[in-house]
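Supplementary Methods. Inverse-folding protocol.

Structures were first reduced to a discrete structure-token string of length 484. This string, shown here, constituted the complete conditioning input.
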């Protein structure tokens, strides 16, 4: 085939060391991860040396358009590929791909379309990829990609469908579950995970939890984007965790209770990285609507001196208490560090309820948009959340995406105290599971709130509120907190 582009448009090709970002099984893990791939592997042992020399750059004039686009994909520069050229890739592949490249190339191509958000291009080649792919792990990954794209109709940014449209999507998803059940071994995780996702789409969360637990005991590999299913437990298990829980045993907390007698407080938890990046902007925004109010910071593996706390109070006009939490166990993995820094506010929530009575929790990486005084005086509920789990009908998405850990408020009552202990017990159980079995821990705070809501909805009054902060706001590091 004649070249579709000139030599000058082709990149200087040395593909042996090119990096392909694709989903593949990594050692010591159950999910697919990005890793480098040698183009020689894509060509296969049976490919001629002539073709290999062409792909190594010795005969660029003979390369087709597919090589241009493929190279851009491989080095992670899909954003620089013209849309017109990108849209031709599936047809180019069908025309020349099987002659130029090894059979596994289609799997990588589909994976890259999926990762780059090119859903239309992905859907144009996924059926062919499933038809050709013989490796069971890769078939599992292909089904995971296809199912996820179909399920994205239920994500928060795609929820304008009518009830009839939602029912049609759910029916389509159940049809896909049946297709996968016929194609994949019965002992693999895929079908159980998909069933759980569809049950969430139907708003049948307890059944979803049962399917997630089934998947945890099954074999097979899955895309990393499904990892949060490892956090799921049934409500019976959630209740049993609380019954046998005597407190979080790791770490050591030192409290700096500089102000006592307060009946309300705003609580955040973070590590040093998040503190340096977000705390000044957060504190600045908090002080605008909460002058003179109390902020309690749960500092994970770092400390602030009395002088630093006093200077912050003077600069921003707020009161600050602190807990300095030293916990070396979380340094064992990034998953534990991230998950614990985010979840510490909920692990120790019962303690803060004892101290203050009314506690508000938000994330740190944003700007506060509420008044602590006004919220504390609301009396219509014991617990305030931002969640779609309250709403009847319409589209539902995954449990952990439908409840915000960064918008939460709670009054201290006997029932809410029990709920706080249940949350802490669950977070300890998942901490141990992550620590000893290499499982998921980040997002466990959101799953904990979802489980607590399902467990206590008939015993505690819940109310939905608007987000208490706007995420992603920072200020330049020229505030006095960073000086000196």
């Amino acid at each position: 085939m004649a070249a579709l582009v000139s030599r000058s448009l082709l990149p200087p090709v040395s593909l042996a060391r090119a990096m392909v970002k694709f989903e593949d099984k990594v050692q010591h893990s159950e999910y697919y991860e990005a890793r480098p791939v040698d183009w020689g592997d894509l060509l296969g042992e049976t490919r001629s040396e002539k073709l290999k020399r062409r792909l190594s750059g010795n005969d660029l004039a003979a390369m087709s358009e597919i090589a241009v686009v493929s190279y851009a994909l491989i080095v992670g520069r899909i954003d620089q590929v013209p849309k017109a050229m990108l849209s031709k890739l599936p047809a180019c592949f069908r025309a020349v791909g099987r002659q130029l490249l090894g059979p596994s190339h289609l799997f990588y191509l589909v994976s890259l379309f999926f990762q780059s958000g090119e859903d239309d291009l992905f859907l144009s080649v996924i059926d062919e990829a499933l038809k050709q792919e013989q490796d069971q792990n890769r078939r599992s990954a292909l089904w995971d990609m296809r199912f996820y794209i179909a399920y994205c109709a239920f994500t928060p940014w795609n929820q304008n469908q009518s009830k009839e449209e939602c029912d049609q999507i759910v029916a389509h998803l159940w049809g896909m579950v049946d297709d996968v059940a016929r194609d994949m071994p019965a002992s693999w995780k895929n079908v159980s995970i998909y069933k759980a996702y569809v049950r969430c789409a139907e708003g049948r969360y307890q059944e979803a939890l049962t399917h997630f637990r089934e998947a945890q005991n099954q074999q097979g590999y899955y895309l990393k984007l499904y990892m949060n299913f490892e956090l799921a437990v049934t409500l019976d298990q959630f209740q049993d965790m609380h019954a046998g829980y005597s407190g979080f045993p790791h770490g050591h907390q030192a409290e700096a209770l500089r102000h006592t007698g307060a009946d309300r407080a705003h609580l955040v938890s973070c590590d040093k990285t998040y503190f340096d990046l977000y705390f000044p902007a957060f504190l600045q925004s908090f002080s605008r609507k909460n002058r003179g109010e109390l902020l309690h910071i749960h500092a994970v593996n770092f400390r602030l001196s009395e002088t630093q706390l006093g200077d912050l109070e003077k600069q921003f006009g707020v009161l600050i208490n602190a807990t300095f939490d030293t916990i070396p166990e979380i340094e064992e993995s990034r998953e534990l560090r991230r998950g614990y820094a985010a979840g510490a506010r909920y692990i120790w929530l019962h303690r803060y309820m004892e101290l203050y009575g009314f506690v508000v929790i938000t994330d740190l990486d944003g700007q506060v948009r509420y008044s602590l005084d006004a919220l504390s005086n609301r009396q219509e509920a014991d617990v305030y959340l931002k969640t779609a789990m309250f709403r009847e009908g319409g589209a539902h998405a995954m449990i952990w995406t439908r409840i915000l850990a960064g918008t939460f408020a709670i009054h201290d009552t006997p029932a809410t105290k029990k709920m706080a202990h249940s949350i802490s017990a669950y977070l300890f159980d998942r901490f141990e599971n992550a620590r000893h079995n290499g499982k998921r821990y980040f997002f466990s705070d959101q799953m904990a709130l979802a489980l607590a809501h399902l467990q206590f909805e008939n015993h505690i009054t819940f109310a939905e509120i608007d987000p208490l902060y706007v995420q992603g706001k920072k200020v330049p590091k020229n505030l006095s907190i960073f000086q000196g």
